[in-house]
């Protein structure tokens, strides 16, 4: 699934993304670390993997979107 980086805290390696419909979804440090990234800037296009129901969606991976 694709999303746009919305917030990112380098100290805690946590943040949030916006889905294409505008829904914000938070991610934790393990999801960020799983993608192998070192930094994330708001506005960057990212690829995410998620699990759980729509109302409790959890991001399990954040990485850069590549074409």
Write a structural description.
It is a single chain. With 67 residues, the protein is mainly beta. Helices cover 9% and strands 48% of the residues. It is built from one helix and five strands, in the order βββαββ. A five-stranded antiparallel sheet has the order 3-2-1-4-5. A hairpin with a 4-residue loop joins β1 (2-9) and β2 (14-19).
Short description:
This protein has 67 residues and is mainly beta. It has one helix spanning 29-34, and strands at residues 2-9, 14-19, 24-27, 45-51, 58-64.
Major β-sheet profile: 5 strands, antiparallel
Number of strand segments: 5
Average pLDDT confidence is 94
Helical content stands at under 10%
Q: Which series of helices and strands comes N to C?
A: EEEHEE
The general outline is globular
> Segments where pLDDT lies below 50 for 5+ residues?
none
Strand content: over 45%
Q: State Rg.
A: 11 Å
So how many helices?
1
Oligomer: single chain
End-to-end Cα distance, whole Å, is 13 Å
Question: Which structural category fits the helices and strands?
Answer: mainly beta
Strand order of the largest sheet: 3-2-1-4-5
């Amino acid at each position: 699934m694709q999303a746009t980086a919305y917030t990112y805290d380098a100290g805690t390696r946590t943040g949030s993304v916006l889905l294409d419909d505008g829904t914000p979804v938070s991610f934790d440090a393990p999801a960020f670390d799983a993608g192998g990234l070192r930094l994330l800037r708001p506005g960057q296009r990212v690829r995410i993997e998620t699990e759980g129901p729509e109302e409790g969606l959890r991001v399990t991976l954040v990485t850069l979107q590549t074409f």
